[in-house]
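Whiteboard transcription, Tuesday session. T.W. wrote the structure tokens on the left side:
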């Protein structure tokens, strides 16, 4: 099967140095989902290659012309350029930390290389909103993203919270009237705020939800447990400790 050329947009997830001048980059593409590419000559000091590697920072949005062969684990990129250049994500330490968290969580969920345009557009939108965000939106965006990403992977939380259903059973992913017969559940303010975050449709609304740093940190930790319960070999989030410090 010959390699075919395709145009696609992509969001960079991870970059690893390869040899003296090359990189292997993992990209979430609009057409083919998660893919890995060998990119030669972007780390040279020569004028031609200078500055090219900065296009492959995590969360970067690129326009790509790629060779695609589904029998290969590693394809090549023919052309690449910015699809959109952020105003703040690469220069603001806090926004960059949130972007790295978003990218790591997505990467941990993507198991198969298959296209998912709805998820791709959700990612584009979330990163754009992060870039434009004020402090209130930015601080709550990791919580919003973590809850709403579950929708695309089949384990979203059923928002049936009310005066009776006040406990969130994290194994079942729904609110229940009695504490479950295990310790993986939320109650009180954690349960109520989770329901409120599930109702948020646009990130701009997040500035209306006033939470302190410690409470956000606790929620992110229990949401990580939720992912571990529903995604095999999920492990731990490397960006979470950094995010906790930065958003303090």
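and on the right, the sequence the group agreed on:
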């Amino acid at each position: 099967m010959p390699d075919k050329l395709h145009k696609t947009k992509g969001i960079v997830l991870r970059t690893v140095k390869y040899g003296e001048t090359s990189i292997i980059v993992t990209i979430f593409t609009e057409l083919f989902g998660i893919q890995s590419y060998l990119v030669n000559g972007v780390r040279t000091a020569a004028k031609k290659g200078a500055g090219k590697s900065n296009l492959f920072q995590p969360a970067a949005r690129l326009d790509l012309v790629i060779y695609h062969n589904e029998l290969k684990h590693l394809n090549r990129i023919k052309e690449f350029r910015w699809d959109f250049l952020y105003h703040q994500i690469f220069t603001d330490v806090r926004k960059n930390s949130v972007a790295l968290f978003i990218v790591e969580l997505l990467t941990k969920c993507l198991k198969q290389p298959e296209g998912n345009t709805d998820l791709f557009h959700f990612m584009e939108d979330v990163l754009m909103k992060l870039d434009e965000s004020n402090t209130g939106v930015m601080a709550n965006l990791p919580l919003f993203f973590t809850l709403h990403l579950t929708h695309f992977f089949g384990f979203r939380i059923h928002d049936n919270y009310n005066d009776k259903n006040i406990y969130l059973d994290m194994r079942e992913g729904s609110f229940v009237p009695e504490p479950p017969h295990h310790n993986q559940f939320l109650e009180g303010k954690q349960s109520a705020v989770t329901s409120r975050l599930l109702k948020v449709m646009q990130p701009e609304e997040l500035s209306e939800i006033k939470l302190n740093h410690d409470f956000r940190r606790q929620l992110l930790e229990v949401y990580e447990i939720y992912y571990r319960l529903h995604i095999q070999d999920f492990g731990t989030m490397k960006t979470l400790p950094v995010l906790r410090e930065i958003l303090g």
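Someone added at the bottom: The longest strand covers residues 4-18.
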